[in-house]
Amino acid sequence: MKKTTFTLFFILFVQLYFSQVGFAGNQDYGMMRNFAYDKITPNKIYATSYIGSHILTSTDNGLTWNVLYTLPDPEWAPAIQEMRLTNNGTALSFIEFYGGGSTMNKVAVFDLQSKSIIKRSIFRWTRQSLGSKIILFWMMER
């Protein structure tokens, strides 16, 4: 029993010790996240760069990527979080996150036709919400 247990642990150790961990990414933009497939155009994908300041698009199912939108204010190092394709497939909604407690945090809607921000709403963090994360938001016309 001891010999079998030792052998299993030894095999596990060797497997973990000699295994290589790698991350797939793009040569120009590194790792990407927040993927969203276009509902209308086949093989079209939207993603954000890992650093988070770019929205990228691919029309060949992820083989090549082009920058669609870059956040303003690079000196503040903002990040795009929680990017989603809207239900009708005509816009991307996302959070412009400048940091917990920042008065510059916004929810934005990017129109894919005009390639511009069509709505932007500032949200404020309270002391109680600093460790929280926005998981759902909606915007309505007034």
Question: Can you describe this structure?
Answer:
A hairpin with a 4-residue loop joins strand 7 (106-111) and strand 8. The N and C termini lie far apart (72 Å). The protein has a single domain, classed as Neuraminidase (6 Propeller), CATH 2.120.10. 12% of the residues lie in helices and 34% in strands. The protein contains 1 helix and 8 strands. It has a 4-stranded antiparallel sheet, with no helix packed on it. By secondary structure, the protein is mainly beta. The mean pLDDT is 76. It has one helix spanning 2-18; strands spanning 32-37, 45-49, 54-58, 66-70, 79-85, 91-97, 106-111, 116-122. InterPro entries: WD40/YVTN_repeat-like_dom_sf.
Brief sketch in words of this structure:
By secondary structure, the protein is mainly β. It has 1 helix and 8 strands, in the order αββββββββ.
- Helix fraction, binned, reads 10-25%
Please write the CATH class name.
Answer: Mainly Beta
Q: Please give the radius of gyration in angstroms.
A: 21 Å
Cross-sheet strand order for the largest sheet: 1-2-3-4
User: Strand-and-helix sequence, N→C?
Assistant: HEEEEEEEE
Mean pLDDT: 76
Q: How many beta strands in the DSSP annotation?
A: 8
From the coordinates shown, what is the CATH architecture?
Answer: 6 Propeller
State the low-pLDDT regions, or none.
none
Number of domains: 1
CATH topology: Neuraminidase
What portion of the residues fall into strands of 2 or more residues? 25-35%
Structural class: mainly beta
CATH superfamily: TolB, C-terminal domain
Span between N and C termini? 72 Å
Alpha plus pi helix count: 1
Shape, principal axes of CA atoms: extended
Largest sheet: 4 strands, antiparallel
